[in-house]
Design a protein that fits this description.
The complex is a heterodimer of chains A (756) and B (451). With 756 residues, chain A is an alpha/beta fold. Chain A has 23 helices and 30 strands. Chain A has four domains: 6-97, Ubiquitin-like (UB roll), CATH 3.10.20.740; 133-268, Alpha-Beta Plaits; 284-357 and 537-708, Rossmann fold (3-Layer(aba) Sandwich), CATH 3.40.50.740; 360-534 and 717-755, Dimethylsulfoxide Reductase, domain 2, CATH 3.40.228. Chain A is 29% helix and 17% strand. In chain A, strand 3 (54-57) and strand 4 form a beta hairpin. Chain A is globular, with a radius of gyration of 29 Å. The longest helix of chain B has 20 residues, at 415-434. In chain B, helix 2 crosses helix 10 (227-239). The chains are: A alpha/beta (756), B alpha/beta (451). Chains A and B meet through helix 2 of A and helix 15, helix 16 and helix 17 of B. The structure holds flavin mononucleotide, iron/sulfur cluster (3 copies) and FE2/S2 (inorganic) cluster.
Chain lengths: 756, 451
C-alpha cells in the first residue's frame, strides 16, 4: 500500500489535514464542514456542472468548484465569505427561476436537496419576473420511471449513472442549453434492471418511481434498516413504511462493502409480496381433501400429537426436515436444533449446489472472495456464473473493478451485459465449465507455472490430461490466453454459481476450481480467491447453520442423515413418515431432480411454514402462516459470508407469526426448556456454539454487518493445504475446448437460455 | 476539368492596387487554382514540410517557439510552447486543428480552408512530425460544407503525391490527415468540447486537469491549434523563425488575417502584419463606417471581447494582444465588427447575448439559466418594457454568470452588456424611461407590446 500523503489547508479558518488527491469537498466533508452538491455524487467522478459547491479560494481570481478542485498545501478556503455566498446564492437563484416550485404535490418534497439548500442559501423573494419554462408533467421514460422535466436541474446524475456506473445505454440529454432535457434514445424506453437508482440519486423530484408516485409524504415515513431478500447479494435497504403500517418503498442504505449504494429493480420494487392479499393469514389443517382454517392451538396440538405418534411408531429416523434459503440464521439454527436435539434425527437438508469431493469442513475456508475485494483483483474469472441475471449488483461491482483496470474472463455461456468487457471468453457450454478449468490447470502444470501442486499423483494426472487435450485439436487460443492472464495476475477472483456444479459434466467443479486457485496462488487470499455466488439471501446461512445431513452447525461433524433428494423419494419411496418444511417448496424441485410427486403424498404428516400457498403447502397436513422478513428481526449471511441484520419494519400481519416463534412454540411443546426467545439471544447462542461465527454478536454487527471471522482473517500462509486438494484429478471425458465452432456456440446459446 | 470554384468571400476592393501587406496566408488571392496541389507547390508549397522532415522533431518545436508564433484561436498562447508540453511517451498522440470558427465576426478560417487547403494540411503535417504524432484531425464547422469538400479533395491529392499517408516524401514519416465535420455547435470550438465531439460524444467542455497535452483525444497527448495558427506554420518552417519574427510587434509576431465586418464600407478579410492599428484596418482599408455615417463603437476581436469606442487613442492602438488589452479589451480571434451611429445599442447587445443563450451547451447552471434570463430581460428592455432597476439586475445576473460558469462561453456572455453599458449607459436608461429606442430606426416609436 502506498503511503498516504497529507496536505494542510484551512477552511473557514479551521486548520484541516486532507489526503493528497482529495478535492476540497472531500476534505471538507471529512472535517465535518458542509458544502452543498448537486451534480457531484460520491460514487462518480466529479463533473463540475451545477456550480452549487462554489467556494472562495484565496489567491484564485474566481470562486472554485469544491467538488472538482484538488486541495493543495497552504490552501485557504472560505465557504461563508461574501464571495462564496454570492456565488452560491447566484446558482441557487438560477436553479429556481425555472423551477415550478410545486413542492406540495412533489414526491420529493420534504427530502429534496433543492428545497433544503433553497432554505439554507436562497433568497426569500425572487427577482425573476419573466415567464417560467412550461413542460408537460410526468413523462414516462420507461416501465419504472417518470420524469418531470420542469423540476429537473440538469445535474446529470441520472445520465452519468448510466454512463459511469452501469456503463450501458441509459438516460441521455436531449437538446442544448436552456432547452436541455433528460430523455432516452429516440424510440427506446428506459429499460434497465438498475433503473430505480436514478430516482434515489436525483436530487430533486424530477425522476420518480411510477410505483411510488403520490403514495406518501416523506415526513410520514418510518425508515427501518434491513436487507434485501431477493438474491444472495444482500444489498442493504431501508424499508420505508407509511405511518409504520404500509410498506411503500425500499431505498438503498448504502453499504460500500456490499451494494456500493445501489439496488437492482428486482430488489427495489420487490416489496409487493409483503402486504399481498395472497398471504396466508391463518393456520390450516387438512380435513379430507381440503385444508381448513384452524386456531394456532389446534394446529400445534395436531402437529405435536402426530409427531409423537409417528416417532413412537416408526422411530425418529422416520422424521425429517427441509428448510428454505430465505429464513434467518436464527430460524434455521432453531429448526435443526429442534430436529436434531428434540426429535433426534439428522434427516435435514435444503436445496443447494453440490460440493463434489470437497469435504464439508473445507467449504468455508476455500471461499474467501468478497464483493468489495473484486475491486482489488487484477483478474476476475466468471466460472459458469451469470451475476447479471442472478446477483445483479455484483455486475456493477465487476464493472467498477474493470473501470479501475481489472480484466475479466468469462468461462461458460454468454452474459449479455458483460461479454463485451471480457478480455477473454471461453464460450463453452455450461456442462463444459469444469473441463475448461481442468484444461487451464493442466496447461499451468505443463508450463511449470502451477504453484502448490505437491503430489506426484496430481501432477501426473494433469500432465496426462494435458497430453490428451493436446493430442486432439490442441488447447484453444482462449485457454492459452486465460492461462497467460492467470500467470500474470497478482490477485484473482473466481466467481462460480452454486448451481453450476449440478450441471452434468461439472461434478467436481468446486475441487477443480480450488486446485486452480491453489495453482495460481489465490487459494485462501483475503478478499479474492474463490467466491460462491449462491442462490438466495440466506443460502450460506443454511449451510452454516447445518441444514444438511452431512454436517451440523459450523460444518461440525455429525452422523449422516437423509439428503434432500432421498427425503423427497429419490429411491421411489420416501423413507419418511413425517416431514417438517420451513419456508421451502420442495415439490417445485421434483422435476428438476428427476423425481415423481408421489412420495411426498404418502407422508403421514407434512407441516409447512409459509407466506403463501405453494405446491408443497397444498399437500400439507398442517400449514402455518409465517411472517415475512419485514415483520421480524434476525440475521442473514450473504454470498460473500457477511452476516447482516434485519429489523422488523411492521408488525406481523394479523394471523401470522415469525418462524422463530413458531419453532420455539413447537420446541416447548416437545419438552424443551426454552430460555431464549428473541433473535439476539438466539444469535448469541449461535456465536457461542458455532466456531464459524465466533466473536460475532448482535451488537457488533452494526449497520453494515460483518464477514464471518474466517473471511475477515483469512491469511494465505495460515491455510493448511489439505490432502484432498492433492488427489489425482479425473480425466475430463469430452473436452470441447479447442473446437470452438458453430456447434459449440449453439450449445452455449441453449445452455444460456436454460440458465436464465 | 471541373470549373474553377468561385473564391469566397470575394476579396474586398482595395484602396490601392497593391495589397497593404504582401500576402502570405492569403497568397491564393490573385493566383488562380491555388487550392490545387501543383499551383500550391509551384508557389513554395510543401517546402516547409520538406525542410521539417530534414530536421529533428525537437528542432522543429524549437524553431516554432523561436518564431514567436502565437495561437490565432483567441487566447494567443505561444504555439511552440504548447507543442513542447506534449510528453515524450510511446503510443498514439494526436494533432487536432480547430476549424470550428463560430465566433460571431470571425470568418478567416472559412476563407483559408476553401482557398488554401494545402497550406493548412502542410501545417498539420509539420505539427504532427514535431510532436511525434501520426494522426492529424481537422475539425471543421459543419456549415463549412464547401471547405470540407475542398479539404478532403486536397488530402487525397496530397496522398496521391506521397505527402499524406505512409512514408511521406520517402522519409519514413507516416501521417494520416482526417477531415471531420462538426454538427453545428459554437461550444465545439472550445478545445475540450471539440475533443468530446470528435470522439463522437456530446459537445460538452471537459474538466481540466488533465489538460489535452496530457490526456486529450481518446485520453492521449493532443495538440489543439486554430486553423490559422497551423496555416502560419508552413511559412515559419519554410522561411525560418528569424524571417517570421521580423514581422509583428515585440510580443505578437508575424501576420494575421483580420476579419472586418458590420457597418463598414469594405468588409472582408485583411491580412496584415500584427500590430497594424485599428485606424489602418477600419478607416484606411475598410473605408470607415458605411453610408457616410460615423462609427459608434466596435468589437475588436470577436463577440466575446469588450466593445470599444472609436476614440483617437483606441484607433491608434496597434492590433496585438498587449495593445488591445491595454485599452480594456482583447485581440481574441481578430474579428472586428463595426457598429454605426444609427445602431440602437440595446438591440445590438440583445442580439449578441441571444447568441450566447442559443449556443450555451447547458452543462453548467449559471450559463444555461443565466443567459436565458439575460435575454428575457434585454428583450423586454429593447421592446419598451424595461423597469427601473433592470440595469442593476442585469448587471448582477451577469456577475453571477461570469466567473461562475464552467467554461469561457458563460464567462463571455455578459461581456457585450457590461462593456456597452459602460459606454452608453444613457441609452439603456432612455429605454426604461422613454419605453423606446434613443437612436436607430425605431427611435421615438412606441414599442411596448410591439413584440
Ligand atoms: C466558447 C469557445 C469557443 C471557441 N471557439 C473557437 C473556434 O471556433 N476556433 C478556435 O480556433 N478556437 C476557439 N476557441 C478557443 C479554443 O478553445 C482554443 O483555445 C484554440 O483552439 C487553441 O488554438 P490556438 O492556440 O491555436 O489559438 C474557443 C473557445 C471557447 C471558450
Ligand atoms: S432528472 Fe434528476 S438526476 Fe437527472 S439531471 Fe435532472 S435533476 Fe439531475
Ligand atoms: S442485487 Fe440482489 S440483494 Fe441487491 S437489490 Fe438486487 S435482488 Fe436485492
Ligand atoms: S459556461 Fe457552462 S453551459 Fe455555458 S457553454 Fe460553458 S459549460 Fe456550457
Ligand atoms: S457539485 Fe460541484 S459543481 Fe456540481
Amino acid at each position: 500500500m502506498a503511503e498516504v500523503e497529507y496536505v494542510n489547508l484551512s477552511i473557514n479558518g479551521q486548520a484541516i489535514q486532507g489526503r493528497k488527491g482529495q478535492t476540497i469537498w472531500q476534505a471538507a466533508k471529512d472535517a465535518g464542514i458542509f458544502i452543498p452538491i448537486y451534480c457531484y455524487h460520491p460514487k462518480m467522478p466529479p463533473l463540475g456542472a451545477c456550480r452549487i459547491c462554489l467556494v472562495e479560494v484565496e489567491k484564485t481570481p474566481k470562486p472554485q468548484a469544491a467538488c472538482t478542485t484538488a486541495i493543495a498545501e497552504g490552501m485557504v478556503v472560505r465557504t461563508e465569505s461574501i464571495i462564496a455566498e454570492k456565488a452560491r446564492g447566484g446558482v441557487m437563484e438560477f436553479l429556481l427561476i425555472n423551477h415550478p416550485l410545486d413542492c406540495p404535490i412533489c414526491d420529493k418534497g420534504g427530502e429534496c436537496d433543492l428545497q433544503n439548500y433553497a432554505v439554507d442559501f436562497g433568497q426569500s423573494t425572487g427577482r425573476f419576473q419573466e415567464e417560467k419554462r412550461h413542460l408537460g408533467k410526468a413523462l414516462e421514460l420507461g416501465p419504472t420511471i417518470a420524469l418531470d422535466r420542469e423540476r429537473c436541474i440538469m445535474c446529470q446524475r441520472c445520465v452519468r449513472f448510466g454512463s459511469e456506473i452501469v456503463q450501458d445505454e441509459g438516460l441521455i440529454i436531449l437538446e442544448r442549453g436552456a432547452e436541455s432535457e433528460i430523455g432516452t434514445f429516440p424510440g427506446k424506453p428506459y429499460i434497465s434492471q438498475f433503473s430505480g437508482n436514478v430516482t434515489e440519486i436525483c436530487p430533486v423530484g424530477a425522476l420518480t418511481s411510477r410505483t411510488y408516485r403520490f403514495k406518501a409524504r416523506p415526513w410520514e415515513l418510518k425508515h427501518t434498516p434491513s436487507v434485501c431478500t431477493h438474491c444472495s447479494v444482500g444489498c442493504n435497504i431501508e424499508v420505508d413504511t407509511r405511518l409504520g403500517r404500509e410498506v411503500v418503498r425500499f431505498m438503498s442504505r448504502t453499504n460500500d462493502a456490499v451494494d456500493d449504494g445501489w439496488l437492482c429493480d428486482k430488489g427495489r420494487y420487490g416489496y409487493g409480496f409483503i402486504q399481498s392479499e395472497q398471504r396466508l393469514r391463518t393456520p390450516l389443517i387438512r380435513k379430507g381433501a381440503s385444508l381448513v382454517p384452524a386456531t394456532w392451538a389446534e394446529a400445534f396440538d395436531f402437529i405435536i400429537t402426530r409427531l409423537n405418534e409417528i416417532k413412537g411408531q416408526y422411530g425418529s429416523q422416520a422424521i425429517g426436515g427441509i428448510a428454505g434459503t430465505h429464513s434467518t440464521n436464527e430460524e434455521l439454527y432453531l429448526f435443526q436444533k429442534l430436529l436434531r436435539g428434540l426429535v433426534g434425527t439428522n434427516n435435514i437438508d435444503h436445496k443447494h449446489g453440490s460440493f463434489g469431493s470437497v469435504p464439508g469442513a473445507a467449504i468455508p475456508a476455500i471461499h474467501t472472495a468478497t464483493i468489495e475485494g473484486l475491486e482489488t483483483a487484477k483478474l476476475i474469472v466468471l466460472v459458469g456464473a451469470n451475476p447479471s441475471a442472478r446477483q445483479p449488483i455484483v455486475e456493477l461491482r465487476i464493472k467498477k473493478a474493470l473501470k479501475a483496470g481489472a480484466k475479466l474472463a468469462i468461462i461458460g455461456p454468454s452474459i449479455k451485459a458483460l461479454d463485451r468487457f471480457a478480455a477473454v471468453r471461453l464460450p463453452v457450454a455450461l456442462g463444459q465449465v469444469e473441463a475448461a478449468l481442468h484444461a487451464s490447470l493442466a496447461l499451468l502444470s505443463k508450463n511449470g507455472t502451477a504453484k502448490g501442486l505437491q503430489s506426484e499423483a496430481l501432477k501426473n494426472s494433469l500432465n496426462e490430461a494435458y497430453n490428451s487435450y493436446d493430442a486432439g485439436t490442441g488447447l484453444s487460443a482462449e485457454v492459452q490466453t486465460l492461462v497467460g492472464l492467470l500467470e500474470g495476475a497478482e490477485r484473482v477472483t473466481f466467481l462460480y454459481d452454486e448451481l453450476t456444479p449440478d450441471v452434468k459434466g461439472n461434478q467436481d467443479l468446486v475441487a477443480t476450481l480450488a486446485r486452480l486457485a491453489l495453482a495460481t496462488g489465490q487459494l485462501g487470499l483475503p478478499g479474492v480467491g474463490i467466491g460462491r455466488l449462491v442462490e438466495d439471501n440466506n443460502s450460506w446461512g443454511a449451510l452454516d447453520m447445518g441444514i444438511t445431513p452431512a454436517f451440523g452447525p459450523g460444518y461440525s461433524q455429525t452422523t449422516a442423515g437423509l439428503s434432500y433428494a432421498e427425503m423427497l423419494g429419490a429411491n421411489g419411496q420416501t423413507p419418511l413418515k413425517a416431514l417438517l418444511v420451513l419456508g421451502a417448496n420442495p415439490v417445485s424441485h421434483l422435476q428438476e431432480l428427476g423425481l415423481s410427486g408421489d412420495a411426498i403424498t404418502n407422508l403421514e404428516l407434512l407441516v409447512v411454514q409459509e407466506l403463501f400457498m405453494s405446491e408443497t403447502a397444498e399437500r400439507a397436513h398442517v400449514v402455518l402462516p409465517s411472517a415475512s422478513f419485514a415483520e421480524k428481526d434476525g440475521t442473514f449471511t450473504n454470498t460473500e459470508g457477511r452476516v447482516q441484520q434485519i429489523a422488523a419494519a411492521i408488525q406481523p400481519l394479523q394471523g401470522t407469526a415469525p418462524d422463530a416463534a413458531i419453532l420455539l412454540e413447537l420446541a416447548g411443546r416437545l419438552g424443551a426448556d426454552v430460555k431464549t426467545r428473541n433473535s439476539q439471544g438466539l444469535f448469541e447462542e449461535i456465536a457461542r456454539t458455532t466456531q464459524l461465527y465466533k466473536g460475532l454478536s448482535f451488537n457488533n454487527l452494526g449497520q453494515e454487518g460483518m464477514l464471518r471471522p474466517l473471511e475477515r482473517e483469512a491469511q494465505a500462509e495460515n491455510l493448511q493445504i489439505p490432502d484432498w486438494l492433492q488427489n489425482a484429478t479425473r480425466p475430463q471425458p469430452e473436452v470441447l475446448i479447442g473446437t470452438a465452432n458453430a456447434e459449440l456456440e449453439q450449445a452455449l446459446e441453449a445452455s444460456g437460455k436454460a440458465q436464465s | 476539368m471541373a470549373q474553377q470554384e468561385q473564391i469566397f468571400p470575394p476579396p474586398p476592393p482595395l484602396l490601392t492596387d497593391k495589397p497593404p501587406f504582401e500576402y502570405q496566408l492569403l497568397k491564393h488571392r490573385g493566383i488562380p487554382g491555388f487550392d490545387k496541389l501543383e499551383v500550391y507547390r509551384a508557389n513554395g508549397g510543401y517546402k516547409g514540410l520538406e525542410r521539417t522532415l530534414s530536421m529533428q522533431p525537437d528542432e522543429v518545436v524549437a524553431e516554432v517557439k523561436a518564431s514567436g508564433l502565437r495561437g490565432r484561436g483567441g487566447a494567443g498562447f505561444p504555439a511552440g510552447m504548447k507543442w513542447s508540453f506534449i510528453p515524450k511517451v510511446s503510443g498514439p498522440k494526436y494533432v487536432t486543428c480547430n476549424t470550428d470558427e463560430s465566433e460571431p465576426g470571425t470568418f478567416k478560417d472559412h476563407e483559408l480552408i476553401e482557398n488554401n487547403p494545402h497550406q493548412l494540411i502542410e501545417g498539420v503535417l509539420i505539427t504532427c512530425y514535431a510532436i511525434g504524432s501520426e494522426h492529424g484531425f481537422i475539425y471543421c464547422r459543419g456549415e463549412f460544407a464547401r471547405g470540407i469538400r475542398v479539404l478532403k479533395r486536397a488530402v487525397e491529392e496530397a496522398r496521391a503525391a506521397g505527402l499524406v499517408g505512409k512514408n511521406i516524401l520517402g522519409t519514413g514519416f507516416n501521417c494520416e490527415v482526417v477531415i471531420h465535420s462538426g454538427a453545428g455547435a459554437y461550444i465545439c470550438g472550445e478545445e475540450s468540447a471539440l475533443l468530446e465531439s470528435l470522439e463522437g460524444k456530446r459537445g460538452y467542455p471537459r474538466l481540466r486537469p488533465p489538460f489535452p497535452a496530457v490526456a486529450g483525444l481518446y485520453a492521449r497527448p493532443t495538440v489543439i491549434n486554430n486553423c490559422e495558427t497551423l496555416s502560419n506554420v508552413p511559412h515559419v518552417m519554410r522561411e525560418g523563425a528569424e524571417w517570421y519574427s521580423k514581422f509583428g510587434t515585440e510580443k505578437t509576431k508575424g501576420f494575421r488575417v483580420y476579419c472586418l465586418s458590420g457597418h463598414v464600407e469594405r468588409p472582408g478579410n485583411y491580412e496584415l502584419e500584427c500590430g497594424t492599428t485599428f485606424r489602418t484596418l477600419i478607416n484606411e482599408l475598410g473605408g470607415g463606417a458605411w453610408k457616410g455615417r460615423k462609427i459608434k463603437c466596435f468589437i475588436p476581436g470577436g463577440s466575446s471581447t469588450p466593445i470599444l469606442a472609436p476614440t483617437d487613442e483606441v484607433m491608434d492602438t496597434p492590433m496585438d494582444f498587449e495593445g488591445i488589452a491595454a485599452r480594456g479589451s482583447m485581440q481574441g480571434s481578430a474579428g472586428v465588427v463595426i457598429f454605426d451611429d444609427q445602431t440602437c445599442i440595446v438591440g445590438a447587445v440583445l442580439r449578441l447575448v441571444e447568441f450566447y443563450k442559443e449556443e450555451s451547451c447547458g452543462k453548467c447552471t449559471p450559463c444555461r439559466e443565466g443567459t436565458q434570463w439575460l435575454v428575457q430581460m434585454l428583450h423586454r428592455l429593447e421592446n419598451g418594457e424595461g423597469r427601473p432597476g433592470d440595469l442593476e439586475l442585469i448587471t448582477d445576473v451577469g456577475s453571477n454568470i461570469a466567473g461562475k460558469s464552467f467554461c469561457l462561453l458563460g464567462d463571455s456572455a455578459p461581456v457585450p452588456y457590461n462593456s456597452a453599458l459602460k459606454l452608453f449607459r444613457e441609452e439603456f436608461e432612455y429605454h426604461i424611461t422613454h419605453k423606446t429606442c434613443m437612436v436607430g430606426p425605431r427611435a421615438g416609436k412606441q414599442l411596448a407590446g410591439v413584440h
